[in-house]
Amino acid sequence: MLTTASTWATPLLSGLTSSLTPSNPPAAPFRLIAGLHLVSLPLLILCAPETVFDRSDSSDSDSDASTKASRGYIRNVIRFRPPLTSSSSSAARAVRAVVAPSTCLVSALSAVPYAALWGLAAVGAILVVPEPLELGPVVVGALLTGPWVLATLVVGGLACFYRGFHDRFTRRAGCVVVAVGAFLVVVGLLSFGLGLDNFMIKPVPSSPPYFTPSAAQQLSPPLLALQLGILAAGIHVLDTATRPLIARSASFSSSSVAAAQGSIGDMHAAIVAFRSFAAAIGIATLRASPLRPAVIAMTVVQILVVPAVLLLCWYAGEAVWRADGRVLRLVDARELKQSGSFFDHD
């Protein structure tokens, strides 16, 4: 929820700060971000080393750290002392996780939705600023509150019963979650993209104005925010199935809990990187001029990709997990070919 709020509440806060500083509105958001960095960077420097602390080698002690030890810890952090031990195998596994089959399948499910969400959000903001709409920074920021509100509701609602739902996250439940998320993505993508295109001047001009005065009066920014929010909600529903899918693969191919946790983290980081890359492509390539063909093409691709991934996971799930184990080198490939039990051999 914090990530969702920090992502989608930023345009609204930027619009509010721009309205409070009419002398130099474009500089207001950057001043706000710089002020937040004054707080976030010290927290990052002081808290990041604690997240990578190897607790398995630590001694059990209930006593509080002394002042001398605390000062020594801060001095070591300020000096940016590198870790005492490093694992080349862990770094290589993180690279191999990028091409793991489960990583590619989950990334394929969310690549088009992320590209569509960020691309349409950028296009919508560009279209409503010029005449005849002339929406200010605050209204444009409010236009992007739809993804913030609906995505927060989805994330918060799932967080209430995620632990119990995660325990019962069977293959059938995963398919249902993916189908519901894909349905919301298609609804939000078509309603926002085609709805916005219907009000635009035909043929779409390369420069403003993009709407006639009568069409601009009929265009509803709250409805656009709702449609964009449905798309964002579908993405977060799809994201619900991400960690259980890769966790099932890691538990199948890993020999220990530590190896499974490392594989889950590496594959999830690769998925996040793929999603960010897809969002960047959507922002860079999606334009207002061929909006209708682009929206229809992304919808068709998503409709084709989702059933293909679900069928592959349903009928060839173990084959995908075995391939993950081979790619990540978590198990010996010869052991995966054994059909008998280990206890059948002398």
UniProtKB/TrEMBL annotation:
Domain of life, source organism: Eukaryota
Q: Which keywords does this chain's UniProt record carry? A: Membrane, Transmembrane, Transmembrane helix
- Segments spanning the bilayer are 103-129, 135-161, 173-196, 224-246, 267-288, 294-316
Q: What is this protein called?
A: Uncharacterized protein
Q: Organism, per UniProt?
A: Ophiocordyceps camponoti-rufipedis
